[in-house]
Design a protein that fits this description.
The protein has strands spanning about 5-10, 15-20, 25-30, 30-35, 40-45, 55-65, 70-75, 80-85, 100, 105. By secondary structure, it is mostly beta strands.
Length: about 110
C-alpha cells in the first residue's frame, strides 16, 4: 500500500439495512466494515443477505489500486447503486462475495 494509506476490514457488530424507496434490498447482521484512508466507512454485505434478483449488472467497472477491480449493479430507476470486488486483492480478501451500497442504514 502507498505510504500513509491504510485499509482495515473487520466484522461489524451493527445491523445493516439497505432500502431504496419502499423496497428492502439487503439486510444483515453479518456485514463487514471497511475503513480506508480518505473515504467514508463502507459496509460490505454478504451476497446471501442481498436481494440479488432486484439488481441488474451494469457495464460499469472501476479499478482501485488497493482493492482491485469492481463491478456494479443497478436498479431500474437508479444506476450503479451497488458494487463488489469479485477478485479482491489479498490484503482485503474478506470482501470477496460481499456487496457494498452507497446508502445504508446501520443500527
Amino acid at each position: 500500500m502507498t505510504k500513509g494509506h491504510r485499509i482495515t476490514v473487520e466484522r461489524s457488530d451493527r445491523h445493516v439495512r439497505v432500502v431504496h424507496g419502499e423496497q428492502l434490498l439487503a439486510e444483515s447482521d453479518r456485514a463487514l466494515v471497511l475503513r480506508e484512508t480518505g473515504c467514508p466507512e463502507r459496509y460490505y454485505i454478504p451476497s446471501e443477505d442481498v436481494r440479488l434478483g432486484l439488481l441488474t449488472p451494469s457495464g460499469t467497472h472501476t479499478h482501485c489500486p488497493f482493492k482491485g477491480d469492481a463491478s456494479y449493479w443497478s436498479l431500474p430507476d437508479a444506476a450503479d447503486v451497488v458494487w463488489a470486488y469479485p477478485d479482491p486483492k489479498p490484503e482485503v480478501a474478506e470482501i470477496k462475495d460481499h456487496l457494498c451500497f452507497y446508502e445504508v442504514e446501520v443500527s
